[in-house]
TrEMBL record:
<protein>
    <submittedName>
        <fullName>Helix-turn-helix domain-containing protein</fullName>
    </submittedName>
</protein>
<dbReference type="InterPro" id="IPR018060">
    <property type="entry name" value="HTH_AraC"/>
</dbReference>
<dbReference type="GO" id="GO:0043565">
    <property type="term" value="F:sequence-specific DNA binding"/>
</dbReference>
<keyword id="KW-0805">Transcription regulation</keyword>
<keyword id="KW-0804">Transcription</keyword>
<feature type="domain" description="HTH araC/xylS-type">
    <location>
        <begin position="1"/>
        <end position="80"/>
    </location>
</feature>
<dbReference type="InterPro" id="IPR009057">
    <property type="entry name" value="Homeodomain-like_sf"/>
</dbReference>
<dbReference type="Pfam" id="PF12833">
    <property type="entry name" value="HTH_18"/>
</dbReference>
<keyword id="KW-0238">DNA-binding</keyword>
<dbReference type="GO" id="GO:0003700">
    <property type="term" value="F:DNA-binding transcription factor activity"/>
</dbReference>
<dbReference type="InterPro" id="IPR050204">
    <property type="entry name" value="AraC_XylS_family_regulators"/>
</dbReference>
Amino acid sequence: MADRLSMSVRHFSRRFSREVGMSPERFVERARVEAARTAIEQGNAPLEVIARRHGFLTAETMRRSFLRLLGAPPSSYRARDDAVLRR
């Protein structure tokens, strides 16, 4: 992104953080988690597939991000979503 705006990475990161309120890395992680969460809610694809489709290198990396941002791993999140749908 910095290259596209003809900025140094450091300058871009500072500007982005000032404007958005979080680092570019955090923003991307949140966007990936939200997209993966939606995919978990709307489908039955294996978590490894969902992880790769949404920019995580592995399901373990996605699990760590889910724990950090949502407080639960994707597997239990899917289980909760399934339980709500069965009601």
